[in-house]
Structure formats: structure tokens, C-alpha cells
Amino acid sequence: MENQTTASGIEPGQSDVQQNVASSVQQPASTISLTQPISQAKPQENKVDFKSLIPESFKEEKSLQNFNDMESFVKSYLHAQKLVGMDKIPVPNKFATDEDWQSVFKKLGAPDNPDQYKYSFKEGEVEPASLKVFNQTAHKLGLLPKQAEGLVKFYNELNQNVLQEQEVKAASVRQEAELSLKKEYGPEFNKRLEQAQRLAHSTLGQDFLNNTILNDGSRLGDNVFLVKAFSQLADKLSEDEIVKGEGQGYQTASEIQKEIDSLTEEGSPYWISGHPNHKKAVDEVYKLRQSLNG
């Protein structure tokens, strides 16, 4: 019994305090595995409420309500500093006079007088007289040169489109009128049309007939009713040299038929193949029939 030791290695006769110290020293230390990473706590980012940095006397400023961080505030401040010293154009209020607005327009780049508007149009593209009137209005309204040129170009393109549409419409109406008159006049169409045109040109003028546009888009000179009216008037004035003109004579349908009957009467060269005038008669009758049938 005397040679036995305690399992904990505490010598007999030790005090309670000594036994506790010895027990704590002899306990094995906890081991750390090399395969297990040592976890390190990430440092927490200290977020600062930007609005809390604003002095109490400025917290109600509306211009500061849009800022949520210092970076945005600094960027805005630097941008404002860059604008310091630049020319500023005050916007006139509702009580501003025309002179106030003219002052603003000049600062924006409007010319001092209408003659200073310059354009890049080709010669003949714009009528000088019309452009001069436009420049006066543009200057009164305070238009910048670029704006004035843009408006003139827009108007020109619009005008060109209208003219092209009128041409297409006039050509269509002219064709319809010609078909209607040919159907009514038959072989006399060319005669009546030429006499009607000559009389209309001598009384109304060619420019007036060609440049007067009716509601349907056609020209006055192509109007069926006008052509008929002048044709009827030409018949009554057929002895007038203005109507007759210097062209070849014309025959009515009845006159043409009468000449055909004369050339093809029984016993005429038309029916005798050996007659010296046979071919001439045949050709003449053929031409007359072509004329009669249009």
C-alpha cells in the first residue's frame, strides 16, 4: 500500500491548494490541427450617415437632401466650382420686355441685324427677295443662324413636295381631259384643241392658263369645260386669223367621208388596178380613213 501512487500523480500529504495547482498543470493542452484553417474575423466597415454630418442649422436645406454620401457631395461641389466665373445668361421672367429678350438672344448667338444671317444655299435655290423678308422676321424673333437656316431648308423641302404632288395631279387630270375630248371630237380633236389653245392664249395669256391651279390640282388650261368653251368660240370666230393660225387646214368627219366617197365612186382609178392614178387614189383613201378613225 505504501508503494502505490494516485492516478492523478498527486503526492500524499499535499494540501488542497497544492493538489488543485498540480491537477491544472498536468492536464494535457488542447491540440490544433494543421489541416483546419484558423478563422479570422473580418474587420467591420464603419458606415457613417452623411446626413448626420450636416450641421443642425443646414439640415433643412433642400439642396442637400439629394446627397447620401460624401463622394456625391464632393463631386457636386467641384462641378459647381468649375462653373464659377463662366458667363451666365439669366432667364427673363414674365415681366421681361422685348429688349430683355433681344439681349438674351444676342448672348446666345443671334446676329445684330438681319443682313448678318449667312446660309449655305446654292445659287437659285432660294429667292433673294423672299429670303430678305424671312431674315427680318427671323431677327425680330431672335432666331440663331442655325435655326434660321434649318427653317428655310424645311420650307424649301415642303414646297418642293407640294409642287411635285401638283405636277402628278395635273398630269393625271390632263390625260383624263385629253381622252374625254378625243372621244367627243373624234378626228377633229387636234383641230379643235389647237384653235381653242390659240384663242385662249391670245385672250387670257399662256402663263395665266399654265400657272392657275384649280381645287382639284389641275391647271386652268387643262380644264375640259374651258377647252370646250374656247373651241365653241373658235368655231364662231373661224374666219379670224388668230383662230385659223398658219397651220394646215382641217376637215370635219363629214368632209372626210365625202372625199372618200368621191375617190371610191364606181369607175374611178381607185377600182382600176392598171390606171396610172390607181396607187395614188388607194393611198389617199387609206390616209383619209386613218384620219376618220382617229
Quick recap:
The protein has twelve helices and no strands. The chain has helices at 16-26, 50-53, 70-83, 98-108, 128-141, 145-185, 189-203, 206-211, 224-236, 241-244, 253-263, 278-292.
Rg over CA atoms: 54 Å
Mean pLDDT: 77
Strand content: under 5%
Tell me the total number of β-strands. 0
Descriptive report:
Helix content is 54%, strand content 0%. By secondary structure, it is mostly helical. Among the domains are: 163-244, no CATH class; 253-292, no CATH class. Helix 7 packs across helix 9 (224-236) and helix 11 (253-263) runs antiparallel to helix 12. It is rod-shaped and about 130 Å long. Residues 1-10, 29-35 and 239-245 have low confidence and may be disordered.
List keywords for this structure.
12 helices; mainly alpha; single chain; 54% helix; rod-shaped; disordered N terminus; 294 residues
List the helices and strands and how they pair.
Elements: H1 16-26, H2 50-53, H3 70-83, H4 98-108, H5 128-141, H6 145-185, H7 189-203, H8 206-211, H9 224-236, H10 241-244, H11 253-263, H12 278-292
Helix pairs in contact: 7-9, 11-12
